[in-house]
Amino acid sequence: MRSKYIVIISTLFVLVTGLLVSNSSIAEPDLPVIGITKIKAPVNDNGYYTRKNAKAANFQTMLETQMSQVGRFKIIERNRVDEVLAEQGLNNEFGDGQTAGGGFNVSGIDYLVYGAITKLGSRKKAMTTGNFSSVSIITEFSADIKVVDASTGEVRKAETVSVESKTAGGIQTQSFASVDSAGDPLSDIQRIAAKKVAALIATSIFPIEVVKGGAVTYLNYGSAILDKGDIVSAYRPGEDLIDEATGINLGSEEEFEGDLEVTEVNPKFSKAKVISGNQPSKGSIIRIKTKASENSSSTGKPGKKRGRKI
Q: In whole angstroms, how far apart are CA 134 and each of 36, 137, 171, 301?
């Protein structure tokens, strides 16, 4: 009887161990490892009358948060990135082509993200007619981002991300005035920019795709990339176009299917509905057309006509 219990316990141990191993393998997908370097701010100005501080460290923190929420990368801690860059510098200076893998190669990281805030300013839009006047302050922010292959030093992606948003406004009539302004307009616009940069990096490696079609379209990205009210376009990929002289993949022929509006966002996926064109099918590529966060804060959506259209 005792030996029977031993056999049963041994069998249960093997089954539980197998389940743990299986679950651990599922929980550890092979994701790219990314390090975000210190964001620079050449736009900063310490002049007495022209003082400007782009708060680059704040933007870097936001970008790290957004990239972590995407869920498709392993993000290296900031201190570790500094160590890696020091290792890379030593390898490039004293390496013999074999050290740490040779060339630009650095241990533990697949891609390095470099960035600089290249524009920060504001402009005023004003209108006056009779006894009515209005004014809006539009804040403008741009960042240049590069994604570099840590093993070769090759620039895989280089883009400028620009955001403009209405951060203050006011109206005045003969007997009434109203003013509205954001509490921290720079942080608000940096958050929008960080989301756009995260989308740029993530979708260059893992495109936004339709994972399920139908009356409700399901997309493979959630709130880290998309917002409720975003307008996106769907394309059906076709044959790859290869440059015979260089062997470079130039992309593929694409067939436009339709525009969709994002109606619901979850942490890992989103739902959308068709607003023009045809219903996209599973595997269709999605590209962001307009961001709701920028529309609502700058120009807004046009209202419905109450009378006959002109």
A: 42, 10, 4, 18
Report, at the CATH architecture level, how domain 207-301 is classified.
Answer: Beta Barrel (2.40)
For the chain, what are the domain ranges? Answer: 207-301
pLDDT tier for residue 136 given thresholds of 50, 70 and 90: confident
Say what the pLDDT of residue 212 is.
92
pLDDT band at 269 (very low <50, low <70, confident <90, very high): very high
Instruction: Please check the confidence at residue 34 and state whether its pLDDT lies above 60.
Output: yes
- pTM (2 decimals)? 0.70
